[in-house]
């Protein structure tokens, strides 16, 4: 039978996990906002303007997703 004789507590651990979750949520929300802003801006362009950029209207969402993940 095994018994524990020493228990170690990590200082600040109880606050580290929620803080990390909050930070991850903030980053994810910022990424979503970049995605939506890019979709909205590209959607406002005409087909001719999109063609000048080398894009087709069907590629807007994928381009916006790529831009959101790479954004600052």
Helix/strand layout:
Blueprint: H1 13-43, H2 47-52, H3 60-70
Helix pairs in contact: 1-3
Fold and architecture overview:
This protein has a domain at 21-70. 67% of the residues lie in helices and 0% in strands. It is built from three helices and no strands. Helix 1 packs antiparallel against helix 3. The longest helix has 31 residues, at 13-43. The radius of gyration is 22 Å and the shape is rod-shaped. InterPro entries: YjiS-like (IPR009506). Residues 26-60 form the YjiS-like domain.
Which word captures the global form? rod-shaped
What's the SSE pattern?
A: HHH
Helix segment tally: 3
Amount of helix:
55-70%
The major beta sheet can be summarized as: none
Q: What does the radius of gyration come to?
A: 22 Å
Low-pLDDT windows of residues = none
**Averaged pLDDT:** 86
How many beta-strand runs?
0
Q: In percent terms, what proportion of residues is strand?
A: under 5%
Domain YjiS-like: 26-60
Pfam families: YjiS-like
Give descriptors for this structure.
72 residues
In short:
The chain has 72 residues and is mainly α. It contains 3 helices and no strands.
